[in-house]
Amino acid sequence: MSYEDRRPFFSVIVPTFNREHHIGRCLESIVQQGRPDVQVLVVDNASVDRTVDISLSYCDRLNLEVLVNESNCERSYSRNRGALHACGAFLVFLDSDDELTPGALNRAANFLEAHRECLFFFQLRRLCRQISVPKTSI
To answer: What's the rounded Cα separation, in Å, for the pair 28 and 110?
Structure first.
């Protein structure tokens, strides 16, 4: 089967639990990818905050489905549940407190189109941490 036979190209699976302060940034980073061929599956782990409501507010900007677990399960359960509902040619797992860098999905798609023999791949992960360094006087 060729990649053209399947739509969407990517299914982005976002497991989450009580991340109302992060999920918006995560989903906005997917919106900013500007790709119409992306399915987004937010799998909520029985949050008690506004995570689900905030996620649902992106339905008009993303091909988005929010799945809510009946109870708090392990993150791996949520990833697997999302994978079962995914219909994209490739799965992207993104934690709800992470963001895709601009153009990340385009770079991934270009790589996959150029290397059609690949069934999966890994991208480097960039970790950014702000560290406060005290000024020293010399």
So the answer is: 22
